[in-house]
Automatic annotation (TrEMBL):
The UniProt record lists the keyword Signal: yes
Keyword hit for Thylakoid: no
Pfam families to which the protein is assigned, alphabetical: Endonuclease_NS
Name recorded for this polypeptide: Endonuclease domain-containing 1 protein-like
Signal sequence region: 1-19
Domain ENPP1-3/EXOG-like endonuclease/phosphodiesterase stretches: 56-263
Domain DNA/RNA non-specific endonuclease/pyrophosphatase/phosphodiesterase: 55-274
Originating species: Latimeria chalumnae (Coelacanth)
Keywords: Signal
GO MF annotation terms: hydrolase activity; metal ion binding; nucleic acid binding
Length: 279
């Protein structure tokens, strides 16, 4: 049991309830949420990750350690030309050992940083998150939640390539999500919004009955919600809901309220992504 789990068990005990958010993003990376407010309704022993790369917070991830995939990543969309980068996939040392760095890195970099042998580092990482071997020959893409083409600048793009920001997606779904949802935001909707005000939360509905390598959940659904302030001061929001199978359909015409209803049903609690009447 790691320190974060111990902490949450202890807090839940002292508060006499497990309904309280006993750990949260704690102002460390609240700026990635609309009005600095994280989604309501997900409190369930998840891990709260401020995704740090090259000494800067890049976005926030709520991570489901039982299923080894993120419940969501929350980020600010940046205008960009969608130049893809080939990056090595990174991992999250702090999940494996709370005394390890709070910054994403490759396993090689972590071995170097901790000065521990690979045979010591690797099992601790594998116990707490997905790794490259999970995806190799699995038939699934490493599907980004915060995608490269919604970020600008080399470091912001690089920071999306970390396993805690990804879930298994069939290739066909991954491609359609890119064309039908990510491009809709990039090419059509973001133009109507103030740069720097486009808040996006993209997540999954984990399915513990379907896993690759008997470890990493293949989510049944990939969803997303966007809220921004338009150039005329009004707020614009949309939501999307995709069935994560090779031929699964993607609906990009939902309201955030409709998505909240779907997610509330799936998570068995009252989910409110933006928790604001403006979206
Ligand atoms: C995209 O590319 C065009 C043409 O090269 C350039 O003028 C523009 O500034 C770029 N936009 C971004 C957001 O990088
Ligand atoms: C290993 O760590 C040292 C500093 O401790 C650093 O100078 C070097 O670049 C690192 N090498 C790699 C491959 O990360
Ligand atoms: C990188 O992301 C941060 C946080 O979202 C943002 O403030 C910054 O402007 C981005 N950098 C570039 C080059 O777009
Ligand atoms: C997005 O923009 C393109 C080009 O401006 C347009 O052809 C397309 O119909 C738009 N799609 C939606 C869903 O608005
Ligand atoms: C801003 O523009 C949107 C669509 O372009 C429109 O629906 C909305 O009413 C406008 N708001 C104001 C305050 O003019
Ligand atoms: C914010 O979340 C709380 C807790 O789920 C809920 O009671 C409240 O109605 C939400 N507010 C809005 C504006 O969605």
């Amino acid at each position: 049991m790691n320190a974060m789990v111990l902490l949450s068990v202890a807090s839940a005990f002292f508060m006499g309830t497990n309904q309280e958010v006993v750990q949260s993003f704690n102002n460390k990376c609240d700026n990635f949420f609309f009005q600095n407010t994280e989604p309501a309704g997900f409190e369930n022993n998840y891990e709260y990750i401020c995704q740090v790369y090259n000494n800067q917070n890049r976005y926030a991830t709520l991570f489901d350690q039982q299923n080894l995939i993120p419940v969501y990543s929350a980020y600010i969309y940046q205008d960009n030309n969608c130049t893809n980068r080939m990056d090595s996939w990174k991992l999250e040392p702090q999940l494996a050992d709370s005394s390890w760095p709070k910054e994403m890195m490759t396993i090689i970099e972590l071995v170097n940083k901790t000065k521990l042998p690979l045979e010591t580092v690797e099992p601790k990482i594998e116990a707490t998150q997905a790794v490259r071997e999970d995806y190799v020959n699995s038939g699934f893409d490493i599907g980004h939640l915060n995608p490269v083409c919604h970020q600008n600048g080399a470091d912001n793009k690089t920071a999306t390539c970390t396993f805690t920001n990804a879930a298994p997606m069939p290739h066909g779904f991954n491609v359609r999500w890119f064309h039908q949802y990510e491009n809709l935001i990039r090419k059509n909707l973001s133009q109507q919004c103030h740069q720097g005000s486009v808040f996006i939360v993209t997540g999954t509905i984990p399915d513990s009955t379907q896993k690759i390598k008997n470890r990493v959940s293949i989510p049944s659904v990939v969803w997303s919600a966007m809220c921004c302030q338009m150039n005329n001061g009004s707020y614009l929001s949309i939501a999307a809901y995709g069935i994560n199978t090779d031929t699964g359909t993607i609906d990009t015409t939902l309201t955030v309220a409709q998505l909240n209803i779907y997610l509330s049903r799936a998570f068995g609690s009252t989910v409110s992504i933006f928790n604001s009447t403006l979206c």
